[in-house]
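User: For my dataset I need records formatted as: sequence, then structure tokens, nothing else. Please produce one.
Assistant:
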Amino acid sequence: MAQDSQFDMPHQLRELTERNVAQARGAYIQFLDAIVQATNMWLGAMPNEMTLGTKGIYERAILFAKQNVEACFAFARELANARDLQDVIGIQSRYAQAQMQAYALQAQELGRLMAETSQIVQPKG
């Protein structure tokens, strides 16, 4: 029973936490969108030969970043609603496992795209 009282959080505090997570998520998404726009402008100014293949890698990396940040904010929302220590541990464990799997798949995909790109941009000799 003493453990449960450590996680007793007033409803207003839980709502405030959820609003703060939502605001942080919104700010991060705006930041990421600004980076995407700036990078698109930069890539657009470069000759096509220089960006051949790299645009696909860039687009995939941005997609992965968005997926990872969404997972992180979902984790924070879920954690804010944890009822006890056991719940916190379960949430953390599920998040860590899911993200490690996601990171492995993302690294594999980016590696494949980089290998393909290196074949495209290598001088033919």
